[in-house]
Amino acid sequence: MLPRKANSMKTLETILRNDTMHWVGDGFPVRSLFSYREEADRISPFLLFDYAGPWNFEPVKGHTRGVGEHPHKGFETVTIVFDGEVSHRDSTGGGGAIGAGEVQWMTAGSGVLHEEFHSPGYSKTGGPFRMVQLWVNLPARDKLTPPRYQAITRDMIPEATFDGGRARIVAGAFNSTIGPASTFTPINLWDVRLVADADVSLPAPDGHTTMIAVLSGRITMDGESVGEGEIARLTRDGDGVALRADGDAMLLVLTGEPIDEPVVGRGPFVMNTEDEIREAIAEFNSGEFGALAPS
Ligand code: MN
Predict the structure, then answer these.
(1) How far is the CA of 71 from the centre of ligand 1 (A)?
(2) Of residues 255, 197, 200, the one with CA closest to residue 231
(3) 214 - beta bridge partners?
(4) For 192-206, how does the pLDDT look when each residue is reduced to its tens digit (9 = 90+)?
(5) C-alpha distances out from residue 162 to 154, 175, 176, Å
(6) How far apart are CA 30 and CA 24, in angstroms?
(7) Which domains does the chain have, with CATH numbers?
(8) What's the CA-to-centroid distance between 77 and ligand 1, angstroms?
């Protein structure tokens, strides 16, 4: 057997962007930066990246902006709030608020009903709003796992520092810093801030799908410039990422071991076969997803 090539950097494969914004309910001005509908195999184990904002909401009285009761089945939704505050309520009896710097890792698994709104406090004050909702696939063996939440608060997220910046480790590991999120397949999710004009190299597992979302500022990678609202998708080969910040930059780094299984989705359901999708729709229509906890 040949020895593995050590210390090879991942290279830029493509830049994902979407200039078309759509509203999810009346609370989330979303650009879908990638979706399994376009290229499930290249982004696995991730399914969807909805970037909501940046936006400025005016204060509102007697109405809460957001999206009402809807189901999910077969995957996880990961909500990362940077500005603003989101409230949720679901059919497992759970509910709460996700504030700036916090993450909610929801495993829909066998099926959940929930609603997502601006929190009452944020609705009253208004102000800057920016969040990401990432959909993470579950392997076939875990698609029917019981629904659960991981409410990941600011104090639970450790920070790693490196030459040129710092990273809050939500999931996975950055050298010896371990993130709190429990995942079904190996995943890294890091909230990264770079100092102005830093040249940095970050570890990233060989074989993982690797994507770097730029949430503010601009970076250069392999001679290409990647700006706000764009995602650099890198090669799976290689065990590191080299980039330069052009000014300050704020990034979300995602890596994950690909799940090599068919992806069949319709709306809020993502399964492995058409039959499983029909089953999910039938379950939802017959009320098997339960009901929302009383507010
Ligand atoms: Mn939802």
Answers:
(1) 7
(2) 255
(3) 230, 251
(4) 999 999 999 999 999
(5) 20, 10, 12
(6) 7
(7) 12-260+270-281 (2.60.120.10)
(8) 7
| Single-letter residue type at 163 | D
Cα–Cα distance measured from residue 115 to residue 217, given in angstroms and rounded to the nearest whole number: 32
First-to-last C-alpha distance (Å) of the chain: 61
> Coil, strand, or helix at residue 27?
coil
Question: What's the 149 CA to ligand 1 centre distance in angstroms?
Answer: 13
Cis amide bond preceding 45, omega within 30: yes
Give the position of tokens 């940046």: 54
Interval 258-285: pLDDT, tens? 999 999 999 999 999 999 999 999 999 9
Q: How many residues does the chain have?
A: 295
Question: From the CA of 223, how far away is ligand 1's center (Å)?
Answer: 37
DSSP element (H, E) containing 151: strand 148-152
Measured CA distances, 27 to 115, 129, 136 (Å) = 12, 10, 22
Task: Count Cβ atoms within 10 A of the Cβ of residue 47 and give its class: 0-12 exposed, 13-18 middle, 19 or more buried.
Answer: buried
